[in-house]
Write a structure and sequence with these properties.
The protein is an alpha+beta fold and 381 residues long. It has 9 helices and 14 strands.
Length: 381
């Protein structure tokens, strides 16, 4: 019975993959090549692998394009929202000037309101101290002593300047925070995971969770408190993401040209499809290689297939690997800074020519280095 079953199997195989012949004529000579069932199955398997590899590569390219398109749309939406807010603010300010100029209310009461707003603004502006570009962007308007306007008109002008200043602070913080959020998304990271609880900025800005509470604490009107709270939250997010980005491998290890990317490719040694877990850069021998983020050197030596290798632990589950080096210029345990030279490009290990093989790892899983470099390029634009 076993012999009968075994003899039946080739018959079923031949029904699915009958032997086919390819005839090649060269002059008067005709040669026939037989495509057996096994060869047809092998060719079919190779076709499936090629189609699958093409589909994976296409999906990755499409996902990258979608990510960039979403980032551009988000920036455009933020810009449009900012323009609408500015237009609405200008209309409200003009209305406020008319009302305040025509008002017969107490001048002292108006002065107290302006003073309370000034005290709140002083506290908010203090939180922007040290932020790159904030000092120039958030310069207050200095009024001239020779101003010929009436006290009420001058007070209305001060209030308008206060509104403009807090609006600029709100817009400045929102723009910076959104740019960082988009960079994290380009790298495939969730920005919310890097924004801890309580990232607001000191004093009553920590205690207040809504505009009405903050308005009561600062003794200002609620619309003004709403802008203060919005600015403080965005500034808090900006500071948290800026701190986080400083330890992430967003930089490039070299400015050399890319020769092979992350994903499935044909192995240059055996010609078979294989997962390439990093990105390759080609340049002349001994081209300098730099650290893509600050960290501590966790490995210097030879790894199987990688040749001379340097690995850096950046903390937070992130690690980078620099392989096929000709030489290393760091030691295990050494703390390195962003952009510090760690070695020279070579062709050691399983390599077909002088190049750098660069990997980014997060929590034990290889990531696409191109995403991180794209995020870094976006931040320095």
């Amino acid at each position: 019975m076993r012999n009968e079953a075994n003899s039946a199997r080739p018959g079923r195989l031949e029904r699915w993959f009958p032997v086919r012949f390819i005839y090649v004529r060269t002059g008067d000579e005709v040669r026939a090549y037989a495509l057996t069932a096994q060869r047809q199955m092998l060719m079919g398997a190779m076709a499936v692998v090629l189609v699958g590899w093409g589909a994976i590569a296409s999906c990755g390219f499409i996902l990258d394009m979608i990510g960039e398109s979403r980032a551009e749309r988000a920036v455009a939406q933020a810009r449009a929202t900012s323009e609408r807010v500015n237009a609405d603010l200008q209309a409200r300010l003009e209305t406020a000037v008319v009302r305040m100029t025509a008002s017969t209310g107490s001048l002292e009461e108006m002065a107290q309101m302006v003073e309370r707003r000034h005290a709140a603004l002083t506290q908010v502006m203090g939180t922007f101290r040290g932020v790159d570009g904030a000092e120039l962007e958030l310069q207050p308007v200095v009024m001239s002593n020779s101003d010929s306007r009436t006290p009420i008109e001058r007070m209305a002008a001060v209030r308008m300047d206060q509104e403009r200043l807090i609006a600029r602070a709100e817009r400045f913080a929102e723009t910076r925070a959104e740019r960082l959020r988009l960079a994290f998304r380009l790298a495939g990271l969730n920005p919310a995971a890097y924004i801890g609880q309580g990232t607001s900025l000191g004093g009553p800005l920590i205690e207040a969770n809504d505009p009405s509470a903050l308005a009561a604490i600062l003794d200002v009107d609620e619309p003004f408190a709403t802008r203060i709270l919005s600015a403080s939250r965005n500034l808090g997010d900006m500071r948290a993401l800026t701190d986080a980005s400083g330890s992430l491998p967003f930089a490039r290890p070299t400015q050399a040209r890319t020769t092979s990317g992350f994903g499935v490719r044909f192995d240059p040694f055996n010609g078979r499809p294989a997962l390439h877990q990093g990105q390759d850069f080609a340049a002349p021998l001994n081209t300098p290689i730099y650290s893509t983020a600050p960290g501590v050197v966790s490995f210097v030596g030879v790894r199987s297939g990688y040749g001379n290798t340097v690995e850096i632990d950046h903390g937070g589950g992130f690690k980078t690997r620099y392989a096929h080096l000709n030489s290393a210029s760091v030691q295990i345990g050494q703390r390195v800074a962003l952009g510090q030279r760690i070695g020279a490009m070579g062709s050691t290990g399983r390599s077909t020519g002088v190049h750098l093989h660069y990997e980014v790892w997060m929590n034990g899983r290889a990531q696409n280095p191109a995403r991180f470099m794209k995020a870094g390029d976006y931040l320095v634009q």
